[in-house]
Amino acid sequence: MEFRKLGESDLKVSVVTFGAWAAGGWMWGGTERKDAVEAIQAAHDHGVTSIDTAPVYGQGISEEIVGEAIKNIPRDKVQILTKYGMRWDIVKGDFGFKSKDNDGNDIDIYKYAAKDSIIKECELSLRRLNTDYIDLYQIHWPDITTPIEETMEAVGQLIQQGKVRYAGVCNYNAEQVKEAQQHINLVSNQVPYSMVLRNIEEDVVPFCITNNVSVLAYSPLQRGLLTGKIKPGHKFAEGDHRAGLYYFKDKNIETTNKFLDKLRLLAKEKNAALSQLVIRWTIEQPGITIALVGARNAEQAIQNAKAINIKLSFDEIEFINEELNKLVMEKV
């Protein structure tokens, strides 16, 4: 495995990091807890020492699964990245969206990052994760009802208390990152990035490079689309959010698969799965520090971890980029 340092810190994380959203089942059609635990453990056995989770993933379930999976691993051999600021248990802050929990019950999600809420969330996360500190604590989404200064002040307090090591943000634009930096040593910004979603290259990535803020790319496989395994007409499980995303409309699945077909020969030459080629491409892009990749079982987790063994030359990356530039997705 390769490791990279986050921002101006001494925190090194595995370049392939385990993304535990799907492990919590929420918005992914449920979860098999045993499979999720085994996936995290298998990933760690293959060098993936960093795990990214959040309270809202399964309304606590994902964090509990992470805590269970790492309970027999020395704490200094794993890096826990979790979040705060998305509440389903209170009616406060910036209303986000309506959803359903893993049992099918209606819930409302609020973006709320006031100081008292963050302090409480941290205590609950520590309990679910069965640990006494969090390596990277990240606001999940911007909260327009709370000043960034107040939010970062709360995280700074948690750092002083030893409950958090470093501060990060998620889904922040360049201006928001700049403001947060004025109040805390900000080491990272976690944002969506994939072969078919590259808008952060315009402003977020250049700003982060200039200001030494690491970019953590989530959904590098575009929620499974870039594995090449999803075909037009695919039926998602009940509660799987992908069914409503334009990426997974038949026309876009077909367009994406035609692009992926052009990469199959390269993948075959390297004895690699398409998903491994995509992950390697992602972490080779300028400014991208790590790729967060989800897995529902041990087999998927091991395949993701082994993506680190794939090597891409400059010419091979240019070939992929040239083909990407011809790819046009329709927002249907």
Please explain how this structure is put together:
By secondary structure, this protein is an alpha/beta fold. Helix content is 34%, strand content 20%. It is built from eleven helices and 13 strands. It has helices spanning 33-45, 61-69, 115-129, 148-160, 174-181, 204-210, 250-261, 264-269, 274-283, 298-305, 314-324, and strands spanning 3-5, 12-14, 16-19, 50-52, 79-84, 86-87, 94-100, 106-111, 134-139, 164-170, 186-192, 214-218, 288-294. Strands 3-4-5-9-10-11-12-13 form an eight-stranded parallel β-barrel, surrounded by seven helices. Helix 5 (174-181) links the parallel strand 10 and strand 11 (186-192). Helix 1 (33-45) packs across helix 2 (61-69), helix 1 (33-45) packs parallel to helix 10 and helix 3 (115-129) crosses helix 4 (148-160). The longest helix has 15 residues, at 115-129. The protein is globular, with a radius of gyration of 19 Å. The mean pLDDT is 92.
Low-confidence stretches: none
- The strands making up the biggest β-sheet line up spatially as 3-4-5-9-10-11-12-13
Looking at how many chains there are and whether they match, the oligomeric state comes to single chain
**SSE order, one letter for each helix or strand:** EEEHEHEEEEHEHEHEHEHHHEHH
Structural class: alpha/beta
- Work out the strand percent: 15-25%
Number of helical regions: 11
Gyration radius over CA? 19 Å
Q: Per the principal axes of the C-alpha atoms, what is the gross shape?
A: globular
Number of strands: 13
User: Major sheet, described briefly?
Assistant: 8 strands, parallel, barrel
Query: Gap between N and C termini, in Å?
Result: 39 Å
**Helix percentage:** 25-40%
Overall mean pLDDT: 92
